[in-house]
Amino acid sequence: MTNKLAPTPLDSRASAVVERLHARSRRQTRRALAPLLVHSVKSRIRTGTWDPTQNADTKAWLADKLVALDPHKAELCYLLCRSLGARRVVEAGTSFGVSTIYLASAIRDNVAGGPGDGLVIGTEHEPGKAAAARRNLDDAGVGEYAEIREGDLRDTLKDLDAPVDFMLVDIWIPLALPALELVVPKLRPGAIVMCDNVVSGHKQYASYLEYVRSPTGPFTSVTLPGHGGVELSMKK
Ligand SMILES: C[S@@+](CC[C@H](N)C(=O)[O-])C[C@H]1O[C@@H](n2cnc3c(N)ncnc32)[C@H](O)[C@@H]1O
């Protein structure tokens, strides 16, 4: 009988690593839902916004949480990067490197079909997470296709080569638009930007969505609803 879902496009070495990490992320998310609500309310009271970077307690609590992209969304990233022939990819929010493994695998598979090289530039401001991401990428066999820039992405994404073929925005919501604005000048026409949870977080994403959906702006944008929703925006 045919399976309901297509198998992972990753090779067996990478899929063994991501399966373990997806399972850990799912367990953490289940346990973290109630505390997350408490942190969110406290943060709003103290700072007026649910921006973990504005609140030391919440930032510390999130320091060991994977918050990994859902597997089917990560698989879509892989497919889009293969279809675009992506060689330079930017990821805003790397955490333990789960989505980065999909992006680096796509670049590795694109590079295998022709000359030249490729790289995913990941960004992570928690040193422990950045170190874990590098280890996980090496374990998955794709470490040479990823550079994890450690620090605040508002600094680490200032210096980027063009053209960028694909960008994943999987970051705390208040940082999504600042991250995108840094990368827009480097995106080639036809490049895709994927942003997670735009339906479940549509109020907090208002300025990001206004920007990518503006008819006079630099993107043509569509929304895939379900599972929090993703926004796919193509650079005009
Ligand atoms: C949703 S998680 C990313 C998950 C990752 N894409 C995956 O699939 O495994 C967002 C990450 O962004 C990091 N982050 C938050 N603010 C940041 C900043 N200003 N600069 C760089 N990274 C940041 C957080 O530490 C967190 O690990």
UniProtKB/TrEMBL annotation:
Q: Which domain of life is it from?
A: Bacteria
Q: Which organism is it from?
A: Actinomadura physcomitrii
The name this protein goes by in its record: Methyltransferase
- Any one of the GO BP annotations: methylation
Q: Which GO terms describe its molecular function?
A: O-methyltransferase activity
Keyword terms, alphabetized: Methyltransferase, S-adenosyl-L-methionine, Transferase
Look up keyword Ribosomal protein and say if it applies: no
Alphabetical list of Pfam families matching this protein: Methyltransf_24
Classification via PROSITE patterns: SAM_OMT_I
Instruction: Name residues in a coiled coil.
Output: none
